[in-house]
Amino acid sequence: MKTERIVVLMTTVGLLLSVQLAAHHGAAAFDVGKKVTLKGTVKEWVFSNPHCLLSLDVTGDDGQVVHWIAEGQAPNVIFPAGYRKDSFTFGDQVTVTVEPVKNGRPMGRILGAVLANGTTLGPAQSQPTTSTTP
Amino acid sequence: MERFVRLIPVAALAFIASSMADAQAPTAPNRSPGGWLNPDWNKPPITNANRKPAPRRSLTGMWGPADGPGAGTQAQGVPLKPNNGKPENEPPYTPYGLQLYRSHHALEGFDAVLPTEDNDPRNHCEPLGVPRYNHYNVRLTQIFQDDFKVVMLYHYDNRWRVIWTDGRQLPKVVDAGVDIGGEIREPRFFGYSVGRWVDDYTFEVQTVGTMSEDRVWLDSTGRPISDKAHVTETLRRVDADTLIWSETIDDPKVYTRPWETMRMSLRLHDPRTDIQEYYCSPTEQENYNRLFGSGASSKGTP
Description:
The structure holds 2 protein chains of 2 kinds. By secondary structure, chain A is of the alpha+beta class. Chain A is built from 2 helices and 6 strands, in the order αβββαβββ.
């Protein structure tokens, strides 16, 4: 029975991931499904095409500072999710969840963020779709 | 166990619903700061209670995918045949068409490659051409018309397209481009389009004379399209707020038979909506690749 429960769980998680993947874009470079939460200091927020870029200094438990870069989709794509040109400013203390790249570099795409003013934002990616099209 | 199996779809749907709700929750409320109206992607569905009749012979308006802004992205290829490796979604390639597809290294789809390995002309900010503009990040599309033409303004890269409705004939496709009354004209990224009203609510568009297959792709997964393509679109206004946009491609150079690529429902938006720029800038593309794209797709050790 335990194995059967695991199968059910895997099935539902698989379906869940397929829904989320449908909302993503250009997945080949990313470790899809993996999440890394970063608490750090904003160095730069580039609100630009083709992708927005957030530079973040993150201090690890060992005291070492790692420079992360996280991408979002283009400004018009992430605008409905609440992202703006001034969402991040230099020196802000923020928490950002990213889906990291596969090659181990400190890079990823933004799945969510808690801004310096406490505002919580969702994925900086294409918005999910409903299905009313004939 | 049987009861458990019966619960699988219920549990799956619950997970999916919660996922969708969670993903949609952060959507910003529709606002109009200083009169600059933001796009409204949370419109109530059209029902019998709020449905208004379609105006006669009119496509004018600002239109967005009815299924949400992500529905126009079409990252996985044309909507009716997503490039997901399933045999039923394989387009009917000619041998040359399949050879072309295999030479295209796309960032999306079943055969996606890393950003440093792709050869999508989009990444050099090349015009996408028709029909690919119909399959690339379609969001808010504006349509204007007068007695002679219908004009479509695509959001991506601020591109526009003219569809003539004054009765002129569709050019004949020839090897060098198109033949118009004995004159040879050049292939064009947007081709040569003529349109006619099939009935008071259905507009049909024919396009030929598009760019050759070494310049343009059909979609973001690298499906090919050639200068021998004949594209047929229909825009059917089913009510005041809904337009159904369909497309069929007949391209004997790369496909063995005509096939339908799209049947997208569009929803009317407030004509005062402010549209953010969504352009391809070579400088910004280069900056992105330098800061992120190249490093993210590197296979080397960090």
